[in-house]
């Protein structure tokens, strides 16, 4: 009898031990989960974005790109992101985004985007369709917006153009107090570049940093780029503060090579840059400027207002105005590239051309 009881007790003891062990394991798992969450490890992994009319992320799409705009509640000073082979990870503070969903009333889902969330941060993961030609940046006119461009094609462009932010490095261009032409031209070109990329135009810039580039070298960059057009952006100034407004400079040689194209480009650009902020119209002006002469492809030089004029200077000090220039340059260039260039474009009232030829206000030698 005694023996039998002993055996039964042993079995019970073993079962009890096993249950105890399992409980210990479960408890330790639970404990580690609590510790991890407190120390900020991920609690939610790869949650797909849903459609939500109050979502903070908007999706705009065309044949070239998916453009995601992340609306943040406060200005983003530094972009926190990591670009990998197959995705772009953007990390923002949890309290910076109201609603981590796609702003939409329909039932579409942001299948390319998922997110992880931890105690402090949201990590948005944008899946790339193609390795190259994806972009992420802060909108400089509205620092609360982060833009992610996801390429939808191996080569997401139909056109190629060269943009030249006038001056750079030691060559500051014209300046007034602490406003430098080279900074304004760089900003305008960057706004134009981003819009053009989204709308299917590959952009080559003559400088990607604040450095001086020789005029001849600018011509070489353009002629090597296999581009369809060249646009140089400048800001004007004059000893007399009364001069104001915008003008588009073009040039064709004595043989009249590319005459129609070059005039059409200038007309189209001038028409577009006048579309915002009430700029005074100085018209299109033929001038033997070096950058226009060196370019083998249709070229235009835009003088975007006068720093020496108070009214123009006030406008140029607004980021929104510089962005409008960028958008208008984008639209003008695309209008030109998509038009029948050889026929010229009668967008623009020709009488303006002569009216604005006051020698005192021509562009400095570019
Ligand atoms: Zn200049």
UniProtKB/TrEMBL annotation:
Residues annotated as domain MurNAc-LAA: 219-334
Entry keywords, A to Z: Hydrolase
SUPFAM superfamilies to which the protein is assigned, alphabetical: Zn-dependent exopeptidases
Entries under Pfam families matching the protein: Amidase_3
Keyword Lipid metabolism: no
Heme among keywords: no
Top-level taxon of origin: Bacteria
Gene3D superfamilies xrefs: Zn-dependent exopeptidases
The protein's name: MurNAc-LAA domain-containing protein
Organism whose genome encodes this protein: Clostridium omnivorum
Lineage: Bacteria, Bacillati, Bacillota, Clostridia, Eubacteriales
